[in-house]
Automatic annotation (TrEMBL):
InterPro entries: DUF1272. Residues 58-81 are annotated as: Disordered. It comes from the Bacteria. This is DUF1272 domain-containing protein. The lineage of its organism: Bacteria, Pseudomonadati, Pseudomonadota, Betaproteobacteria, Burkholderiales.
Length: 81
């Protein structure tokens, strides 16, 4: 099951589970649409994978399948790319 991480790894912007602005790679590295598009150019700086829109979990499933609360933040992500 997707972790639905709460923030962008590059700029630390909040990305709640219902956000349409979240992008992920196949390892669930998570970025906001602005960083994914303008900074990372659609490629994950951690694994080199494609960044795609993160699926949104239905609201009625969040209580029994909560999103992650662990924030991952790497302010140097733009230099890694």
């Amino acid at each position: 099951m997707l972790a639905l991480r709460p923030s962008c790894e590059c700029c630390d912007k909040d990305l709640p589970p219902e956000s349409a602005d979240a992008r992920i790679c196949s390892f669930e590295c998570t970025f906001c649409v602005d960083c994914a598009t303008n900074v990372l150019h659609g490629t994950c700086p951690n694994c080199g994978g494609e960044l795609v829109a993160r699926p949104r979990r239905p609201a009625n499933k969040l209580a029994s399948n909560p999103p992650s609360t662990e924030r991952v933040f790497n302010p140097d992500c733009a230099q890694q790319h």
